[in-house]
């Protein structure tokens, strides 16, 4: 059997590419070895947000008296019910992908895929039956998995990865989270909020290390205020799992320390799924665990493409989706522009939330820009005060010479819903003066963006 396009993987890159291809009239098949929707819908973005929502509701009820509301009786998290809700949300999203595939007449080939020379794909199903398909174009969208360190092997019981962290049978009394990127910080926040004693360990000087330094320091303050213990510039030397509790040996600037915890969560990044999928046999080149592609996701072998976590760039669902669309539209012969990877928003769903895009302050200076920086704290926001969430700020960075919006870094309640304003503004090459002339609604959290821009230009009113 032959197709116009076969896609390996049905995550946010693969399924979006498949639907766009179908819209453009291509005959499409997607190979998937597990659930439709990939890691994001089933074991990543979506179910973790469901867990975090439950934690937020629990936090609200615990602090109801702060809002003048009395709740009689004991308030406690039902961990099993929280996990079950998260899984139900994920299942619903996966079924939604099934519906979209059926609507768009996309064929699903269940099994393990391997690309072969001559634009062929070998699929081995659950019974071991092997079928070879032909396609005019083949797109690799196989994603990534938890990265394992040699001194921190995941056993799924005491040392776990993010998948196990979503489906533990019972809530642990204590947990050490190693790695403070988005995954580690979100799980640290979730478990800490529902009452687990959490210690967060980061090897670099700041947690959420890819963020602007001011944002990192604010999140660390907020985490510590919530009762979490945070170590930075610290490395885990080993973990002894022989006893009832794990004994985590941590090396810091002050020496070694042993931390005991029921569970250790390894959140030290991801590894790409490029092994055993036929890259070597087909002659597709890789570098440092990533498939080498051009601006339109073409590999060095004609007719073979790659998108998502397995190519260079931020490993984010919305990036993979856009890459899939660009790749398909280029195959279709449409006029498309390469993605601007310096205008990709990143979001972390802790409390406070983090959202950022573009240059950090340090990166802008290192790139040679003369900059204007504006900062507006949520302590000065009427909406933030009314909501009871005053932690955080809006920080904006402009080129002093031409007014180009170089970057924005938000930390606070609901800021992940606000960052798109900056992304669109930067796409349209909007200057700070145009933002100042754009009336923002009051009272909202979003008006803090305008206030921060005003601060950059010495025109702030409410500071």
Give an overview in words.
This protein has 463 residues and is α/β, with parallel strands linked by helices. The chain is 31% helix and 26% strand. The chain has 14 helices and 24 strands. It has helices at residues 12-23, 38-43, 45-62, 79-103, 162-165, 182-193, 213-225, 279-282, 317-331, 361-366, 382-387, 420-427, 432-436, 447-456, and strands spanning 2-8, 28-32, 107-110, 112-116, 120-124, 130-140, 144-146, 159-160, 174-178, 197-201, 229-231, 235-240, 246-252, 255-261, 263-266, 270-272, 286-287, 290-291, 304-306, 346-348, 353-358, 371-377, 393-399, 405-412. The strands form 6 sheets. Strands 1, 2, 3, 4, 5, 6 and 19 form a 7-stranded mixed β-sheet that branches. A 5-stranded parallel β-sheet has the order 8-15-9-10-11. A 5-stranded antiparallel β-sheet has the order 20-21-24-23-22. The longest helix is centred in the N-terminal third of the chain and has 25 residues, at 79-103. The protein starts with a strand and ends in a 7-residue tail after the last helix. 44% of the residues are buried. The model has no long low-confidence stretch (mean pLDDT 95).
